[in-house]
Write a structure and sequence with these properties.
Number of helices: 17
Strand order of the largest sheet: 1-2-8
Number of domains: 1
Structural class: mainly alpha
CATH topology: Cytochrome p450
Helix content: 40-55%
Radius of gyration: 21 Å
Mean pLDDT: 89
Order of helices and strands: HHEEHEHHHHEHHHHHHHHEEEEHHEE
Shape: globular
Length: 400
């Protein structure tokens, strides 16, 4: 891969990024801290590859998430209607601060800890269902339904309305080039879904997060209608998408490293630290959400002009040997604190405590139930989701 100087825009093979992003980003990181490349859409973007620069940039207020700060014609992301666009991933302060403060009360450590028993019950029920079979696809039967059940229970989404959600998120995160209309159809379906759900909650409020947010909107007028809809969309979308990949990637990493799996089985009390290392080793998001400088900024000695697209490579940062010793090795005894899998700064993942808890419980329940769990296919046959922004498995066949 060619190294870059300002003005160049080399192509990066998306297939290689999906198959092994760490090898691609290692070459970039070794060649320099910042590169101007051509994205998969053919438009130029700047990729930041080294841990110190990525961490600092994640907290830099000059790097805006608001797409209105992008150069005209310089960014082409997924087009969402205003009712889904007004979410925290497209906002800067003060709107970001106001909305995040409203919803943060639902994700306090105390509230999340109260979910421990319900999450474990859900995990056990899912494992009960597959135990007699002797083999299963862990993504479809476990890693996907667990977080969607948890986040839908938190929001108050009725069980009968949950079945289409995975297909919609798949269409948005990894659009099928052969079916370009599918993503647009998914957006329309989600908009209709949330419109009806909010109308139902207004008529019949309950003890759930969405009813509480509606009360904030209707009684205190601190959320616009678009902000309410977008916030519900983001909580459901992100609460499902990131956690299913975190659980799936973690399970595969353990099954691919029998020595680490054996060590964890021998000392289950290490699960909390193990999840941090698993998130560093193969997290759900190789790239942070794109950013746009509000003024010319210097990162890694390179000046990035205002309005251009900046991609912060979490995958590259997590394998930076200047931050993590022997970074390509999975080491559950490693102190992986400081990893960036769940963000950093004011945009740190609001649901991080919930994602951690779900992953800890999911792995603990899985290892408890199936002491002889192994992969059911050669690892090289496993297929990844066709996305450079979401790193997850399409299937994870196991036997037990």
């Amino acid at each position: 891969m060619p190294t870059t100087t300002p003005g160049e825009a080399p192509l990066i093979d998306p297939a290689e990024l999906i198959a092994d992003p760490y090898a691609v980003y290692a070459r970039l990181r070794q060649a320099g801290p910042v590169h101007r490349i051509a994205g998969t859409d053919g438009l130029p973007a700047w990729v930041v590859t080294r841990y110190g620069d990525v961490r600092q940039a994640l907290g830099d207020p000059r790097l805006s998430l608001d797409k209105r700060n992008a150069l005209p014609g310089g960014y082409r992301g997924l087009a969402l209607p205003p009712a889904l666009e007004a979410n925290l991933l497209n906002m800067d302060p003060p709107d970001h601060t106001r909305i995040r403060r409203l919803v943060a009360q639902a994700f306090t450590p105390r509230r999340i800890e109260q979910l421990r028993d319900p999450i474990r019950r859900t995990a056990d029920e899912l494992l009960d269902a597959i135990a007699p079979r002797g083999r299963a696809d862990l993504i479809a039967t476990y890693a996907a339904p667990l977080p969607i059940t948890v986040i839908c229970d938190l929001l108050g989404v009725p069980p009968q309305d949950r079945h289409d959600f995975r297909a919609w998120t798949d269409a948005l995160v990894a659009p099928d080039p052969a079916r370009p209309a599918r993503a647009k159809e998914a957006v329309g379906s989600m908009l209709a879904f949330f419109t009806q759900l909010i109308a139902d909650k207004r008529t019949r409020p309950a003890d759930d997060l969405l009813s509480a947010l509606i009360a904030v909107r209707d009684e205190e007028d601190r959320l616009s209608e678009d902000e309410l809809m977008s916030l519900a969309f983001l909580i459901l979308f992100a609460g499902y998408e990131n956690t299913v990949h975190l659980i799936g990637n973690a399970a595969l990493a353990l099954l691919s490293h029998p020595d680490q799996l054996a060590a964890l089985r021998a000392d289950p009390g290490r699960m909390g630290g193990a999840v941090e290392e698993l998130a560093r080793y193969d997290g759900p998001a190789p790239l942070a959400i794109r950013r746009f400088p509000t003024e010319d900024v210097v990162i890694g000695g390179v000046t990035i002009p205002a309005g251009e697209t900046v991609l912060l490579s979490l995958a590259a940062a997590h394998r930076d040997p200047d931050r993590f010793t022997d970074p390509d090795r999975l080491d559950l005894a490693r102190d992986a604190t400081g990893h960036l899998a769940l963000g950093h700064g004011i945009h740190y993942c609001l649901g991080a405590p919930l994602a951690r808890l779900e992953t800890e419980i999911a792995l603990a329940a899985l290892l408890d139930r199936f002491p002889r769990l192994v992969l059911d296919v050669p690892q090289e046959e496993l297929r990844r989701r066709p996305s450079i922004r979401a790193r997850g498995l399409l299937v994870l066949p196991v036997r037990y």
